[in-house]
Design the sequence.
């Protein structure tokens, strides 16, 4: 009876585990469904090491079981078996096999590590001394939002990283306050963003896999950085090279937005009084990084989420402005609880109209 209860417990534990693990399968955020060269290489390495580990476990357990059952003391037999302490043959076998396994694991690991860290192309110049075409993105992590600066294009975006597919994209990683970590599980990574010094790596976004997820991957902060660490998400929008060039042109051409309608105009006034000190509304706003203390809102009206966590609608935006701490504890935006509803509504109208692409 007791034994059956034990089995039942074990079975339900496995059922729950299976249920939880089944949740790990979203293609836009799963490291187990690689969507680019880096993710694929890391995945292959993971499979290789897992296979080696499983092989070791299976062989050791098999030998263990054979020994337990075949060589157990039998009734009435008190003889001592042959002692094999100091057997050269055995010691050689169990020393050489692990060494071989480690070599099989070490060689691809080292090669991969250097390949994935190879960012020399970032520094390369053309013959005329100009920078090459390699796309470089400066990622700056903040409590709890992400900034993506395209230094060669003069564009700054927040929360949405836009990249071309099927080519290497190079990243400079930094943080402005505490240590965070930049991670796009389906595409590769992760790498720390530090307050001192830059980390660099590259990623490649596969166009076919991007199609499967409607050209949007999800990114996360992978370093415990405060109470809203789990809410520190960003989106990765993939485009073909031509679409990307078009996007870059649109972004570069985007001037300071013009509010349309009386309510939006009133909202713009509120914004210019209360918000513009931290939030820019133009993708080519030239203020230096240290003064960019809040997300750039140039494309706010086109986003899918508010603050990366709330559904994108007027009501949520008003609630967010009134009390940001309620939705993302520990973030650095002040609350506007005392602002009157009319002003908030105007501000919401203005912000929802901030668009670059959908014009
Ligand atoms: Cu930023 Cu965790």
Sequence:
């Amino acid at each position: 009876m007791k034994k059956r209860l034990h089995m039942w417990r074990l079975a339900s534990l496995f059922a729950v585990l299976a249920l939880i693990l089944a949740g790990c399968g979203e293609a836009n955020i799963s490291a187990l469904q690689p969507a680019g060269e880096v993710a694929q290489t890391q995945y292959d390495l993971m499979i290789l090491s897992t296979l080696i580990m499983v092989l070791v476990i299976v062989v050791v357990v098999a030998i263990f079981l054979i020994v337990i059952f075949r060589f157990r003391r039998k009734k009435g037999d008190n003889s001592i078996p042959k002692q094999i302490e100091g057997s050269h043959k055995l010691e050689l076998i169990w020393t050489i096999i692990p060494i071989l396994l480690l070599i099989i694991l070490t060689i691809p690991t080292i090669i991969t590590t250097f390949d994935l860290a190879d960012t020399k192309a970032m520094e390369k110049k053309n013959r005329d001394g100009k920078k090459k075409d390699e796309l470089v993105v400066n990622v700056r992590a903040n409590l709890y939002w992400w900034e993506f600066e395209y230094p060669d294009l003069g564009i700054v975006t927040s929360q949405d990283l836009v990249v071309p597919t099927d080519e290497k994209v190079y990243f400079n990683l930094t943080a402005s306050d505490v240590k965070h970590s930049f991670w796009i599980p389906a595409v590769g990574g992760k790498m720390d963003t530090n307050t001192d010094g830059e980390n660099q790596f590259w990623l490649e976004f596969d166009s076919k896999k991007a199609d499967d997820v409607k050209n949007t991957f999800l990114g996360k902060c992978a370093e415990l950085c405060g109470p809203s660490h789990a809410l520190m998400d960003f989106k990765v929008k993939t485009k073909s090279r031509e679409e990307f060039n078009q996007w870059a042109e649109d972004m570069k051409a985007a001037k300071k937005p013009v509010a349309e309608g009386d309510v939006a105009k009133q909202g713009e006034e509120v914004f210019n009084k209360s918000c513009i000190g931290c939030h820019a509304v133009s993708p080519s706003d030239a203020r230096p990084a240290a003064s960019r203390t809040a997300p750039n809102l140039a494309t706010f009206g086109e986003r899918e989420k508010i603050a990366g966590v709330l559904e994108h609608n007027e009501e949520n935006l008003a609630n967010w402005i009134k009390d940001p701490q309620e939705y993302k504890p520990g973030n650095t935006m002040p609350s506007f609880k005392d602002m009157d509803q009319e002003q908030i509504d105007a501000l919401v109208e203005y912000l929802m109209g901030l668009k670059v692409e959908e014009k």
User: Anything to note?
Assistant: The chain has a mean pLDDT of 90. Residues 99 and 153 are 50 Å apart (CA to CA). The first strand starts at residue 135 and ends at 142. Residues 141, 144, 180, 221, 223-225, 229, 232 surround dinuclear copper ion (CB under 6 Å).
